[in-house]
Structure formats: structure tokens, C-alpha cells
Amino acid sequence: MSTTMQSLRPLAERMRRGWRVSPLPGFLRWWGGELRQLLPMRWRGWFSSGADWHLLQHGAAQWTLRRAGQREPLASWSDLGDPVAGDTHAPPVALAAALRSVDPEDRRLALLLPSSVVLRRPLTLPLAARDNLLQVVAFEMDRQTPFSVAQVYYAVRELDTPAGAGRFHAELVAVTRGTVDPLLTRLREQGVSIDAVDLAMGDDRLGVNLLPPEQTPHHVRPRRRLNLALAAACMLLLALLLGVWLHNRQAALEQMQADVDSMRGDAQQVAALRQQLQDNAGAAGFLAQRKKNAISMLSLLQEVTARLPDTTWLERLSVDNTGQIGFQGQSQQAAKLLDTLKDSRLITDASFQGSIQPDPSTGKERFYLTARVNQPAAGKPKSPAAEPPAEPADDGSVP
Sorted alphabetically, which InterPro entries does this protein's record hold (predicted)? Predict the structure, then answer.
């Protein structure tokens, strides 16, 4: 297990370093601070960062406890323990009373050392050393300090000061084990567990931990498990919410598609009806135009009656759909009929079909003559002089 943790430690350090140098932590701190300012004072502690650091300092056989960032001490006791109770190994009553209001899960104790006993050494290292910073500094410990790695507790922190290309600034913080071990031993005898050994910086701490990982106490954090369970539940609810939203959108889309299909069918029916109406209107217009431009049978009969002489009578008169006229009858002078029909405004292209034959029974000439109806030009209005007399609409017409 220790080997696995050591192999994963560089990766964790790299991820932690990448998180620290990114702008996201600063933004989240600012955003969280702004949100906490909107809450009542009683609620602000519920949304704190979690870890509640208290600083423990030793001087002149006297222990002093205060909260991080505050100058006023919360408790103090002597190295002699609690002489009233007669037990020098029992936890100090003052410490227990001072930390009674702090959640044990969030309680963190840091042993602060004075700057006079701590060695701080600036370093300039290549960027490749970031992945194994502690190991690199361990190899350089003999050269950078008068001590070996086995004689000191040390930590390394990166600095934000600019460095040359391919390099970065760091700071080595080291203290001899002979300085820290007696204090840790005395605290263990009093039943006090230390989470970090750090350097005092005014009312706060420097922010490093000189304790090696194997001496750092492990905290059981049931609230973290609860938070993880709540986060998983939130993610599950979010997934369900997104699923319901997608289902509703899909149902709405299907309903819209069905409505569109129904409207498309209606639109196709309307288009078919419109096309049928247009076709009917076109046909009706065509027929009306044909009827308007066609010559009525009554006019044609009137024209034939007026043109043919009284000595001519017709046995048969036919008009087909193409405007072809057939005259079959008898006349005393059939050859003159072409001259009679030459100037007609309704009959044109008159010609005999076959030969003119005499009829012995009547003494007249039997003939068969063909002609064409003189149709007016389509789309051109006819002049009043050229129009035939108005006739009833039910007398029949030829196209």
C-alpha cells in the first residue's frame, strides 16, 4: 500500500499544482465569499471551507492555542499538564474546552515553530523538477543545508516570482528533527494529535507541512461520504431531469410531427382542390373564349340564305368540329355559286368536290361544294362592323 501511494504521489502533486496555478480557485474563493456575505452571520459558518485550523505554539514551557488568523488566544496550559487533577498525561482541560464547539471532523491543529529554528532557503530549479519536487530537494539537501535528509523535517513550496526560461523559483523550509520531535512527543503524551508542523507568520501560518506523510494523522470524514452520496444523488437527479426533459421534448417533437403530417395531408388536399379549380376555371375560360370566338349556326344559316340565289336549294348542309362546311344541292347555274360565296365574311375557301352533274328530273345541276367557316383571330377583339347579329345562346355553335 505504501509503494502504491508513493507511486501515485507525483501524479497527485502535479494535479494539485495545476489546480493551484489555475485561475479557478481564486474565482471560486471570490464567488463563495460574495455568496457568504449575503447570508446571515449565523449561517456563514455552515458554508465555510470545512477545515477549521487552530494554531498551537510553545514557548517558555507554556502552550498557547489560537484560531488561524486571530491574535487572541483561546486557551493556554503549562507543560506540567493538569496538576490539580494529578495527571500530567491527560489532555488539558483548557484545550478540550476551547475546541468543544468545533466539529471534530473539521478540527485541524498545526504546531507553529518560531522562525529562529526554521531554515528557509530559496531555490531555482528546472521545470522538469516539478513532478518530483520533494525527491529532487532530498538529493540536494546535503548541498543546500548543513544537514542530511535523515536529520530534518522539510517541505518545499513553489513561489510566484518570475524566473528564467525553463526554470521556476521554490523555497525549501526545513527544521531539525531534534527540535520538533520533543514537542511532538510531549503533545502525544497529552493526547493531542497534530495535523501539520508549520512556520509562524504573524497571526497565521506559512502554509507548509513539515510532517512527513507517514506521520500525518488520517481523519475519518463521514460527512465527506455523505456529501459524495448527496453529490451522486444530485447527479442522478440531474440525469433523470435531463432524461425527462429529453423525453418531453421528444414527445412534443413527435406530436408536432404528427400535426405537420396532418396539416401536410390537408395542404395536399387543398392544393389538389386548388389545382382542380384552376383546371376547371381554365376549361371554363377556354370554353367561354371558344364560344365567344365561335360563329353561331343561326348566323351561318342566315349568311348562306342571303348568299345563295333563289334558284338554288340545298339538300344537305353539314358543319363539322373543324369548321368544314359541306353544301349538297341543286342550282340552275351551279358554277356561279363560287362567285356568290367569294365575298362572304363567314364562309371562305369555297370549292367544288367532284363534277357538276345535271339532274334530268328537275332540269338543274347537282353539285357538292365544300368551304370553311371564317373564324376570327383568337384573342383579337372583333370590330362592331364585323360582328354577326346577336343570337340566342341555345342555338348551337361551331368551334
Answer: ATPase_NBD, Extracell_DNA_Util/SecSys_Comp, PilN
Digit-by-digit pLDDT tens for the chain (399 residues) are 456 666 676 777 778 777 766 788 778 878 877 887 887 766 765 655 567 788 888 887 788 888 888 888 888 877 765 544 444 444 567 777 777 777 777 778 888 898 888 999 998 888 888 778 888 888 888 888 888 988 999 999 888 888 888 888 999 999 999 988 888 888 888 778 888 898 888 888 888 888 888 888 776 666 677 778 888 999 999 999 999 999 999 999 999 999 999 898 889 999 999 999 888 888 887 777 777 767 778 888 888 888 888 888 888 989 888 888 888 898 888 888 888 888 888 888 888 888 888 888 888 888 898 988 887 654 444 444 444 444 443 443 333
Instruction: Note whether 72 and 115 are same-domain residues.
Output: yes
The Cα–Cα gap between 127 and 129 comes to 5
Give the Cα separation of 327 and 340 in Å (integer): 13
CATH number of the domain to which 66 belongs: 3.30.420
* Backbone conformation region of residue 352, classed left if phi is above 0, alpha if psi is from -120 to 50, else beta: beta
β-strand 167-176 against 119-126: which pairing, if any?
Answer: antiparallel
| Stated pTM of the model | 0.50
Distance, in Å, from the CA atom of 365 to the CA atom of 331, rounded to the nearest integer, reads 5
Number of domains in the chain: 3
- Euclidean distance between CA atoms 126 and 251, whole angstroms: 60
Instruction: Look at residues 209, 227, 245 and tell me which one is the last residue of a structural domain.
Output: 227
Spatial CB neighbours of 348, under 8 Å, sequence gap ≥ 6: 371, 372, 373, 374
CATH code (residue 326):
3.30.70
Q: Same domain, yes or no, for 29 and 81?
A: no
- Asked whether residue 58 falls in the same domain as residue 174, the answer is yes
Domain limits for position 322? 295-398
* Single-letter amino acid code for the residue at 253: L
- Residue 113, strand partner residues: 199
